[in-house]
Write a structure and sequence with these properties.
single chain; alpha/beta; UDP-N-acetylmuramoyl-L-alanine:D-glutamate ligase; four-stranded mixed sheet; globular
């Protein structure tokens, strides 16, 4: 199994994916807090200019993860025609990605989120959100660009942050076109939109999202399995990955018994972005020839690396190789 997982990791580089979804800008202001404000009982954070960071967020973090693994990404979605979009489209983390499918639309605001961090701890997060669904004209442009990209990619990732990009008018024809072209569609869904993803290849909700999307309250292994099977059948999927935090990932695959894959040993510092990592790694592994089980194990390993870093982190192939070597017993036990 060790060599098989390493072969999959090495086979990822050079594949291409279309990533359509809610793109946003993540801002990090880091510094030290040594006193309380005289104006209110809150810490005063002295922001260090050298620790001010801008990163692609939402679907952009999926792209960042995919590119770190060696995937070539084409970007699809709509943002505002504003300063945040300008900064987002020129971030160094996106070098090599094709932004041709990202529509900049006057009147729309680019979602951005600022995190204030002191001594490694989040103090507050500030969100500027535009959740208005895409207009008919916006859908037309984004869909046309996405469909045009399909012949050039090996698969599609839909990254749903419920910010208005992934509407029925966009998602349903895109899944249909991808399915007709034989391209897998991997989805990170949000509960209000989960019915949109009928006919996709695999979805990867967390446990709360899966419960809300099906109306099944997950209280034990039996209700979890009811939830996974309901998603498989109702959405005509090939597989469902339900991420369960410290309890790992449960894989439901058509025609197979459920597999409950534990988290490998890891120290948890920050779970930010772990869901994006699972989606990205699973999608990358699938287009590289992995089975659903193999893709799930690699996604779990990648997520275990991400949670050991503060803030969103993108795992490199060498780190995955090292994680396989460091967890041989784990890989063997869950990979068979």
């Amino acid at each position: 199994m060790q060599e098989r997982f390493k072969q999959i990791i090495d086979a990822i580089a050079g594949h291409k994916l279309l990533v359509v979804g809610d793109y946003m800008l993540d801002i990090y202001w880091e510094g030290d807090a040594e006193r309380i404000s005289p104006e209110a009982p809150v810490p005063v954070v002295h922001v260090d200019w050298d620790r001010e960071r801008y990163l692609p967020g939402g679907a952009g973090n999926v792209v960042r993860n995919l590119q770190a693994l060696g995937i070539q990404c084409t970007i699809g979605g709509a943002v505002g025609d504003d300063d945040e979009a300008e900064r987002l489209t020129h971030l160094p983390e996106w070098l090599g990605a094709d932004p041709a499918g990202l529509v900049r639309w006057p009147g729309r605001r680019t979602v951005h989120k600022a995190r204030v961090i002191a001594q490694g701890q989040h103090v507050v997060r500030l969100d500027w959100e535009d959740q208005s669904p895409l207009t008919e004209l916006e859908v037309g442009q984004v869909l046309a660009k996405a469909v045009a990209a399909l012949p050039e990619v090996d698969g599609v990732v839909l990254s749903d942050y419920d910010k208005g990009n992934l509407t029925a008018a966009l998602v349903r024809p895109l899944i249909k076109q991808a399915r007709q072209a034989g391209k897998p569609v991997v989805v990170d869904p949000k509960p209000p939109n989960i019915s949109l993803y009928h006919g996709a290849t695999v979805i990867a909700p967390n446990e709360t999202e899966a419960a809300e999307g099906t109306g099944i309250r997950i209280t034990d292994r039996g209700s979890l399995q009811d939830c996974g099977r309901t998603l498989l059948d109702d959405l005509d999927l090939q597989a469902v990955l339900i991420t369960r935090g410290a309890r790992g990932i449960s894989l439901f695959e058509r025609g197979q018994a459920p597999r409950h894959i534990p988290v490998p040993p890891a120290e948890i510092y920050d779970i930010s972005g772990a869901g994006d990592t699972v989606t990205a790694t699973a999608a990358a592994a699938l287009v590289a020839g992995a089975s659903f089980l193999e893709a799930t194990v690699l996604a779990n390993l990648a997520a275990s690396l991400v949670i050991q870093h503060v803030g969103c982190y993108a795992v490199r192939p060498q780190e995955l190789h090292e994680a396989v070597d460091a967890n041989l017993d784990y890989v063997q036990s869950v990979g068979d």
